[in-house]
Amino acid sequence: MNMPLMGTYNHTMDAKGRMAFPNKLREQLGPDFVITIGLEGCLYAYSREEWEKFTEKLSTLTGATGKAAIRKFAANAIIADCDKQGRVLIPANLREHAALDHDITVIGNINRAEIWDSIRYEEQDSKFSDEELSAVLEELAL
Predict the structure, then answer these.
(1) What distance in Å separates the CA atoms of residue 104 and residue 128, rounded to the nearest whole number?
(2) Which of 24, 54, 65, 125 falls between 20 and 30 A from 9, CA-CA?
(3) Is 13 helix (H, G, I), strand (E, B) or coil?
(4) Strand (E) positions, 1-142?
(5) What is the per-residue pLDDT across 84-126, written as a single tens digit (0 to 9) for each?
(6) Are the beta carbons of 88 and 19 closer than 8 angstroms?
(7) Residue 107, SS3 per DSSP
(8) Are 99 and 117 in contact (CB under 8 A)?
(9) Distant-in-sequence, close-in-space partners of 28: CB < 8 Å, separation ≥ 6
(10) Which of 100, 118, 45 lies closest to 76, judged by CA?
(11) How far apart are CA 103 and CA 101, in angstroms?
(12) Burial of residue 55, with CB atoms counted within 10 A of its CB: 0-12 exposed, 13-18 middle, 19 or more buried
């Protein structure tokens, strides 16, 4: 992946659990990207290269909590299989994890895409104020 994943895309999910995955992000992620559970009630979508980096770091975890985290991410991971219309079927367990129903927001988040229920995404996004963003940028000296 050369260019960071970015942008916000609004789509819908049909009754069968299929959603049109944004073409721009799909091109960057590649033909066989991985979707798994994410934090804060979303799904993560990784390119094959980024998934390998993520799982290498994940595999260094030890102890019961580490093993449980590895199991959770790996057991819920799928290879996205887009149809000719660019739609991907999100399995029921992943739809349930992210509370995906109809209105979907997909965002680029630098090294991965995130798939959100639109209302949940708006709630999360509104929690982070301009003041907090400014403080983060100051910390980075930007």
Answers:
(1) 20
(2) 54
(3) strand
(4) 8-12, 18-20, 34-37, 43-46, 78-79, 87-89, 103-109, 112-117
(5) 999 999 999 999 999 999 999 999 999 999 999 999 999 999 9
(6) yes
(7) strand
(8) yes
(9) 1, 3, 5, 47, 108
(10) 45
(11) 6
(12) middle
